[in-house]
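Page 42, continued from yesterday. The earlier attempt failed because a stray header line got pasted into the input along with the sequence. Redoing it now with the clean sequence only.
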Amino acid sequence: MFGLKPNADFSFLTGQTLIQICFGEHDLILHFDGGFSGAATAISITSLISLQLPESEQYEWEDFRQGAGFLVALVSNKVAKADGTTDGTLTIEFCEGGVLKIYDNSKRYESYSVGHGDKLIVV
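This time it went through. Structure tokens are written below.
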């Protein structure tokens, strides 16, 4: 549980389209197309996530296989907004209404990493 710096900027995700999701029991990788910047982005997740789809309840998973059917609904959606909080939570809002939250809930290990071009954010 390392959190994020107060000035953590995830605006580079805005306008990017989620093009691929890779699933494992304890790993989830999201690949984005790069959007306006052209630099592709990948988010590797090994922590708790939650998903709120339009007109549905909020779901949470640490075993990503359980959420695969729900997460697939985000493929081909553009990011409307992405923000991080100092407790380490990354919130990604999609243009079609889905909201994905990635939590920093591990006391011993990294919870997620965001790679964008030559920039790497590890939480």
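Notes: Residues 11-122 form one domain.
Reminder to self: strip header lines before submitting.
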